[in-house]
Amino acid sequence: MPELPDVEGFRRVLSDHAVGRKIRRVDVLDPGVLRGVGVGTLQQVLVGRRFGQPWRHGKHLVVPVAGSDSAVLLHFGMTGALHWACDRHRHDRVVFTFSNGELAYRDMRKLHGLRLANGADDVRRVVAGLGPDAAELSRAGLRDQLAGLRRQVKPALVDQAVVAGLGNLLADEILWRAYIHPRRSCADLDTDDFARLHTRMRNVLRQAVSQGRVPPRTTWLTGRRDEKPGSCPRCGTTLNHGRVGGRGTAWCPRCQPE
DNA sequence: GTGAATGTTCATTC
DNA sequence: GGAATGAACATTCA
């Protein structure tokens, strides 16, 4: 689930409820999600302190710890989420308790997790390997990242080192809207292709970010692909399904010619 | 039992 | 060196 819009939603959850509140407790229900930090250290650094304003780059969420140079780094893998003031769930892995409620880091598959950065350099290293954030990317910026790459366009879009924040579903959604076949080479894209790609990307992100998720609407490709095969929301043609860059991919054979 | 699932990383092979 | 592929991580679901 978590792509850029979802992580932006988690950022808002944190920002709306938890920022500035004193952290009363940190309960690690499953140490399996802690990466490179132990339970004791995490509690020592956090309990009694407050979170500062969280920020996001791509799918990474950085949560500064006020009054220290540490920061909690969150990545949600494929099944992670932040929930506020919820009933305990079996996949809650870490729970932060504040005076006004609880914040749970919930993750079924535990593919990623929670790290602790010590100092600004540590934080910088997180972002260092990532491309520009998809939501901030200008048209020229997008072209700069993709133009001339001898790769298929979909694998390039989901490569976090090229553009940060797009995942499997969003990439398919954007390509479908831009009338570009996922297997086309970046090197083949012309000025019009880049223009459409950028416009559609911004549009999809704006709508998805406002909802904090990729909307399940049936006017979106994302809302139809699970019907297997499902039909194109625009022209009604039966969708194609295949593997591109090793990932399950859906596209409309009519709107997105090879 | 099998395969696939919205993510990332590492090894291998062309 | 780049790019594509497959496996690995842990867990659930069809």
TrEMBL record:
GO molecular-function term, one example from the UniProt record: class I DNA-(apurinic or apyrimidinic site) endonuclease activity
Superkingdom of this protein's organism: Bacteria
GO biological process: base-excision repair
InterPro entries: DNA_glyclase_Znf_dom_DNA_BS, FPG_cat, FPG_N, H2TH_FPG, Ribosomal_uS13-like_H2TH, Znf_DNA_glyclase/AP_lyase, Znf_FPG/IleRS
FPG-type domain sequence ranges: 220-257
Cofactor(s) the protein needs: Zn(2+)
Signal sequence extent: none
Family membership: Belongs to the FPG family.
Name by which UniProt lists this protein: Fpg/Nei family DNA glycosylase
